[in-house]
Amino acid sequence: MKKIRGRMDESILVCVFYGPNGERLIKRGIKLANMLDCPLYILTVDALPYDEFDTEKSAYVEKWGELAEELGAEEFVIRDNEKRPPAKVIAEVANQFNITQIIIGQTARSRWEEITKGSFMNVLLREIPFVDFHVVSVARTVKGNDGDDFEKGVRCYLVQEGEKYKIHFSQTKDCQIEGIFFKEIGTDFNNGIFKFMENNKLHQVEVLDNYIQDTDEIEGCIKKELAKLS
């Protein structure tokens, strides 16, 4: 049962996209909504129709819906088969529900993407200048598929070396992808996982002694970004 809120002059919208950070954003939103005693809405936007979501994305959406019900959100809005830019959709939903505050996750976008396409936050500020934004960083600690612990994540960059991609901890003009590196606990080498965002989708690849193991996924993401610019 939804809680009857005392204040209707404030309303919060949590924007969740692909990946595990959505649950964290929703919980942050409900905490703020309880503090302000105001309504909370949850939104996810996807270019694909709902019936074409893969198993992982469907599981996230189902979990978000359960959280929305459990925590007393006013509504969980799914905008699927959406061809418009996400910022346009967020602005439309914000107007529909008289949103005054928006919570979004911080994306690990590379510097060259910022230059060529602009900051997503700047786009949102132009589309929705009348609301307050709360930008929440991505989770800084993770566990692997086998439960292995990783150290606190640090920002790093991928640089191509021949047919390989190596992680660097300082940004140069040769950097192609920016993300977060989680080093395995108990190793003297840079082994672990590298997480990054591409087109609002979270990707994860294995790192072994500084080098990315699945180069196909990295090259696929780079080709998609270059195709958008052509």
TrEMBL record:
Tell me one GO molecular function of this protein: phosphorelay sensor kinase activity
Q: Which domain of life is it from?
A: Bacteria
- InterPro entries linked: Histidine_kinase_KdpD, Rossmann-like_a/b/a_fold, UspA
Q: Which UniProt keywords apply?
A: Kinase, Transferase
Describe the location of the UspA domain by residue ranges.
Answer: 11-129
**Gene3D superfamilies on file:** HUPs (3.40.50.620)
Q: Name one GO cellular component term.
A: plasma membrane
Q: What is this protein called?
A: Histidine kinase
Q: Which organism is it from?
A: Planococcus maitriensis
